[in-house]
From TrEMBL:
One of its GO terms (molecular function) is 2 iron, 2 sulfur cluster binding. PROSITE patterns: RIESKE, RING_HYDROXYL_ALPHA. Residues 27-140 form the Rieske domain. SUPFAM superfamilies: Bet v1-like (SSF55961), ISP domain (SSF50022). The keyword Lyase does not apply. Pfam families: Rieske, Ring_hydroxyl_A. Its cofactor is Fe cation. The keyword Zinc does not apply. Keywords: 2Fe-2S, Iron, Iron-sulfur, Metal-binding, NAD, Oxidoreductase. This is Rieske 2Fe-2S domain-containing protein.
Amino acid sequence: MHELPVEAYTSQEWLDMEMKYIFSKTWQFAGFVEDVAEPGDYISVQAGLNNIFIVKGRDHRLRAFHNMCRHRGTQLLRAVGKAKKAISCPYHDWTYDLEGKLISIPKREEEFPQLKGELHKCGLNLHEASVDIFKGMLFVHPDKDAPSIMEFFGEVEPYLGPHIVEDLVEYSENDNEPFYSREIKANWKIVVENYIDHYHLAHLHEGTLNMYDHARAEFGWAGPHYWFYEPLVPDYAKDVKNAAPYPLIDSVPEDKIGAYVPWLFPNIGITEGESSWNSFHVIPLAPDRTLVNIRTKVMNVSEREFTRQYTKSSMHKLWSHYGNKGKYEGDPETDPMASGDFMAEDVYACEQQQKSLYSPKFQVGAQAQRGEYAISKFQSVIKEWIEKYKDQ
């Protein structure tokens, strides 16, 4: 009934294998194209065992490098930054240009007599990685000669939503928190399995996601990636222009409106809806801890128009029936199952499952043939990927 042993969700040994054989061998989400807009702008991301940064060069070309100085391996750049003219190691001031070439070493002749001539020819330039763009998102791969990103995501691309991500703008309800970030006390695979579990949508989220027609959901696998779509329920669809919380995304035709919720292997989900588009980035921290970062994009409209739609939606009669009702009655401030927040419900469920894994009584019972088949498939992909590279 279950493709993976309990240890796959609780042991450091399993997480180490996943870092080495999955996260270090796949394209990893780094951010959006606008995060690195001008020459000298950069972002860094952990890709399995490798910390990698993307920088825009003076020629406006994006390049990716392993984030370590060639002298002693010190990290060169921290998370994100703007307008760098060069990349200098904070430890000994070895300096590289935006194309990754070594251009300066303090006291070179005195301290490093072996490094004579042109520095960029001495074989100590930065190690190159790969960077590419998919649906407005930046991805990195630790290998310099990685397979193209379309070779990796090409099979699932036709099943994604028609949203033109590059035309949307990032949105946050809190200016001090540019995106949602939450640490979950559960293994990263439990978070993924919750994301792709169709069976729980009509049950755990009966009061928070009932504006979508779960009975008419379509889903499947394309290579190692999962795709998912379900339409709006008729009442919501009939007046979605007034009921949607944000202005409708105009790149989505009326007959294509619904929830597109694919999972791009191994750790990036996308929720593409009628009025918002979200990246759902799952980052393993420990065998029983996972960081989830969610970034939201909406239509590029005036603040007045945005506020008008939000106000109109909040007063719409449909919301007395659809959404925002907790699973149980209770204090929404302290009980996630009474919060009326589907993310709080999911976090609670994931953390309870993680706790149960340590019980000697834990076992998986009968699984829903349709609603939970994606979980078994995902677990099989994890096994296949580890075995593929472990034998090399």
